[in-house]
Amino acid sequence: MLSSDTKNSNNSNYFAIRSQRVVTSNGIIAATVIVKNGLIDSIDTYDCQLQCPVDDIGNKVLMPGLVDSHVHINEPGRTEWEGFNTATQAAAAGGITTLVDMPLNCIPVTINKKAFDEKLAAVSDKLWVDCGFWGGVIPDSINDLEALLEAGVLGVKSFLIDSGIAEFPNMQADDLRKAMPILAKHNVPYLIHAELDCTNNEPAEIGRSYQSFLASRPKSWENDAINMMINLNREVKKKGLDCHVHIVHLSSAEAISNIKKARAEGQKLTIETCPHYLTLFSESIPDGKTLFKCCPPIRENENRHQLWQGLKEGVIDFIVSDHSPCTPQLKHIDTGDIEKAWGGISALQFGLPLIWTQAKEKAFDLTDIAYWMSAQTAKFIGMDHIKGHIKVGYHADFMVFDDVTEYKITNEMIKHKNKITPYEGRTVTGLVERTYLRGQIVYDNDKFINKPVGQPLLKGRY
After folding, report:
1. CB-side exposure of 305: number of CA atoms within 13 Å?
2. Distance CA 392, CA 407 (A)
3. What is the pLDDT of residues 115-143, one digit of tens each?
4. Model confidence at 8, in pLDDT bands (50, 70, 90)?
5. Phi, psi dihedral angles at 374 (to 5 degrees)
6. 171: which of 8, 158, 312, 367 fits an S-S bond (Cβ 3.0–4.6 Å)?
7. Distance between CA atoms of 142 and 281, rounded to whole angstroms?
8. Which residues, 6+ apart, have CB-to-CB distance to 416 below 8 Å?
9. What is the pLDDT of residue 12?
10. Each residue of 270-299: pLDDT tens digit?
11. Coil, strand, or helix at residue 410?
12. Domains (ranges, CATH) in the chain?
């Protein structure tokens, strides 16, 4: 815990934290990190002498704040599902200091400047961490895309399949051909929910069966969708344009080989996956457990190991939460009807301990975690000049992490609005003790400090 003197000095934003294990892009070092006016002013030796207050956290880890670029906050319009206050509190409790909000599940969906202005109005005094925003593009909003990008969204997202939200229909190939040159011009990523049903079969009967649900959304849907985006990007490149296509929440490891080939051609193609695809597997999911439903689905254990290999090889660029919450009623927890349940995993604050628990068993270390969950995500959203690293001149966004404590996740721990998660009862290693945003403590040992100090992050304005 910080001394009262150190906590008070934090208000003046001139203080230092020293640790035997500071996670930097050059490895884990013993160091003292000096903070002035919200920025990392210098990084000195562990035993340096300073005039400012110093908090020595000993062998606890000082890590960069995580950057989570895939969070469904659902405000305005569906705040019974989540909201900026609770989502950003959960983020802070999980060591996340920057997140990016998705354009759907809110009302209105963020497909034009007017809707984006409404969203920006909704965040006032609610952000416990910094927050950027993705826009969306649907067939009827392509003409609004230019103005939406100029308004400050960091990029846009589309679905290639029914999104589950009537106001956010999927794009067809001809729609994509119109949107991709605009995104290439603005040099922002085009986020794609990559599932494509080419069969036109009648919807499968699923009921309570997880295996039926898994079979209803096969790997081929993802593989075909990714291949379509690769082919469309070839068309764009032939016109002399370079569209950055980003595949969200990859679950099919079968797609990895074609992703490698596309990159070898020079395509700008990035890939993310999520904790649920790296820590859960279909063979262990009982029927009727609707909290495990998400799209694409959680697949087999062998597929899970192949995703880890994709991370190791650098084919998968980073890990994000895809926090997609809803009310318990929409999850049909009581009936166990997987077919009717809303698809989405709620686990925003637990991503770090979930991944660390698995990663250390596979001989990865905390520099790998910081790379996948801070450095690479900051680079993806265009903020790696100020976020994602413990470096001089960067925002003083970091966390104190106890990497050895084991505990069971309980619903009582949850900070997001609806206290449900498929990870209840799961034993994990690693506890976020304290989170700093631009040098200010926002979370300290299960308490939120002072008031929200997060800021909206708009493209070209930070």
Report:
1. 4
2. 34
3. 999 999 999 999 999 999 999 999 999 99
4. very low
5. -130, -65
6. 158
7. 38
8. 82, 86, 87, 89, 90, 323, 325, 346, 348, 349
9. 56
10. 999 999 999 999 999 999 999 999 999 999
11. coil
12. 4-59 (2.30.40.10), 66-379 (3.20.20.140)
User: What's the rounded Cα separation, in Å, for the pair 179 and 172?
Assistant: 11
Residue 111: both structure tokens together: 């497909």
* pLDDT for res 205: 86
344 CA to centre of own chain: 13
**pLDDT at 3 > cutoff 70:** no
Question: Judging by beta carbons within 10 Å of its beta carbon (0-12, 13-18, 19+), is residue 259 exposed, middle or buried?
Answer: buried
Cβ contact 267:237 at 8 Å? yes
**Close Cβ partners of 150 (under 8 Å, ≥ 6 residues apart):** 113
- C-alpha–C-alpha distance, residues 108 and 112, integer Å: 10
Per-residue exposure over 314-337, b if at least 16 CB sit within 10 Å of its own CB, e if not? ebbbbbbbbbbbbeeebbbbeebb
In the chain, the amino acid numbered 353 is P
How is residue 264 written in tokens?
């070898």
Helix segments in 113-218, DSSP class H: 113-122, 145-150, 173-186, 210-216
Q: Strands, E, within 105-260: which ranges?
A: 130-133, 135-136, 156-159, 190-193, 245-247
Are residues 44 and 85 in contact, defined by beta-carbon separation less than 8 angstroms?
no
Q: Largest Cα–Cα distance of the chain, in whole Å?
A: 71
pTM beyond 0.90: yes
Binning pLDDT at 50, 70 and 90, where does residue 10 land?
very low
